[in-house]
Amino acid sequence: MINRIGIVGLGYVGLPLACAFASRSFKVTGLDTDLEKIELIKREEAPIYEEGLQDLLKKVLEEKSLKVTSSYKEMLEESDACFICVGTPSNPDGSVDLRYVKETIEMLGESYRRVDKYLLLVVRSTIPPGTTLNVIKKTLEEWSGKNIGEYGLCFNPEFLREGRALYDIFNPDRIIIGAIDEESGRILLDIYKRFHGISMPPVLITNPTNAELIKYVSNVFLATKISFINMISQLCQRIPNADVKVIAEGIGMDKRIGREFLNAGLGWGGSCFPKDVKAFLRFGEEIGLRLNLVESIIEINESQIENAVKLVEELVGRLDGKTISILGLAFKPGTDDVRESRSIRLVEELLKYNVEIKVHDPKALEKAKKILGDKVIYCRTIEECLTGSDLCILGTEWAEYKELRQETLKKYMRRPALLDCRRLYDPEEFREIKFSAIGLGPR
Ligand code: UDX
Fold first, then answer.
1. How far is residue 176's CA from residue 394's CA, in Å, rounded to a whole number?
2. What ligand 1 atom has the least distance to the C-alpha of 335?
3. Which residues have CB under 8 Å from 186's CB, separation 6+?
4. How far is the CA of 278 from the centre of ligand 1 (A)?
5. Which of the residues 86, 233, 259, 339 has the least number of beta carbons within 10 Å of its own beta carbon?
């Protein structure tokens, strides 16, 4: 029975996972090579914003069920299963950069060579099909001198959403285990049975390659759903009285379709969908298959930015000299992450015109500054952001923006106008001002 767990890579996936295991009677040793991050965590400060993470981190550190280190030797001595959660960024051509995964396996293998015990290695980083067998297994065996059976290996994709990481770790829809041999699968299953107890989710045990594919295919399918409804949103904008939100509601009532991931908007962003969709397309090319549906969903995703600019022009006329307020910069609500944020892409597009842009976000202003620099005006309150502006654009649907009323827009803006790019508002409530929304036909 494995009770001691090591987690390599304390980022958006690794840190919540480490805290979750530690909160359910596992002894966890977290490792990161970023010393600043380690120091921050030791001071009980979560380096990222995730709902509930700060409190849980403090609790598990105080209980001493989580400790962090930058030493592989120390981590290995104190764990019998090791979860790899390091990043797999994109190369300029869209393919996956496996550098961090390889480096991690090499360093781990080197320390493991001197240790005589069974270690279960669990890879959670998203990796292209075949990588567990062709890269990870080979690299580990080369550096550790051990063979399967002396160690175990699983690819175990995670499906957590940013901002909801802890919730998703505690309540996953399913667990996918891609085990290299029966023993590895059995041990990992046992770890999860103890972690979830009576609320154990359904499990699929398969080989590592299928598990690697399941991760990509899930994300590509979800991105396809979003691009599909975004295509329909462009259609609705050309049909009097049509409304994509109602269409999504109606088709979503069919259980075979389902309502989730049918929210039209600026498109999909974040650290996963754009990267994984492009990597999947590349992967197809490498094995001689053109995934043309995947090409189309990327195209639709891009076209939603042009679509939004078109709506801006329809709403306020010539952009020259206008002041525009953007509400929301995070790639989605509930996070300070701005990676591949569609709202920031829209800001960048609008900056090509001679406009002044004022921005607001409840959590992501600091991170947005690193991308947008001094090209926009950063505002601490919604009112400040609206003051003197000719158009307000909702870019990210934070719950607090839902409170916005047309009276507030009338009070602070030079010429009150609202463009809802995330379908947060009821058009009826903005009857007295210029209002437009993605997927809303002329009325
Ligand atoms: C996603 C997957 O949901 C998760 O399973 C995987 O592990 C990582 O990638 P995440 O990137 O955190 O998670 O966010 P998600 O909530 O899925 O949203 C992704 C993007 O799609 C966001 O930009 C969001 O605004 C957009 N989106 C989502 C829509 O435009 N419409 C929708 O209906 C849903």
1. 37
2. 12
3. none
4. 15
5. 259
pLDDT, position 433? 96
Q: Among the atoms of ligand 1, which is closest to the Cα of residue 269?
A: 23
- pLDDT attached to residue 440: 98
Q: Using the mean position of ligand 1's atoms as its centre, give its distance from the Cα of residue 65 in Å.
A: 31
Q: Which of 126, 231, 331, 394 to mutate to test the pocket of ligand 1 (most atoms within 8 A of CB)?
A: 331
Q: Would the CB of 124 count as within 6 Å of ligand 1?
A: no
Ligand 1 atom with least separation from CA of 341: 23
The predicted pLDDT at position 105 comes to 98
Q: Which atom of ligand 1 is nearest to the CA of 276?
A: 9
* Assigned token pair, 22: 């530690």
Structure tokens at 35: 């010393």
Predicted confidence at residue 339, as pLDDT, reads 94
What tens digit of pLDDT does each residue of 382-425 get? 999 999 999 999 999 999 999 999 999 999 999 999 999 999 99
Q: How far apart are CA 340 and CA 15, in angstroms?
A: 22
Residue 262, ligand 1, Cβ within 6 A:
yes
State the pLDDT at residue 260.
97
pLDDT, position 163: 86
What is the 82 CA–ligand 1 centroid distance (Å)? 27
Give residue 79 CA to ligand 1 midpoint distance, Å. 33
Alpha carbon of 437 to ligand 1 centroid (Å): 20
Positions annotated as catalytic residues are 272
Residue 226 beta carbon below 6 angstroms from any ligand 1 atom = yes
Residues of the chain whose pLDDT is less than 50?
none
Q: Which of 332, 337, 340, 420 to mutate to test the pocket of ligand 1 (most atoms within 8 A of CB)?
A: 332
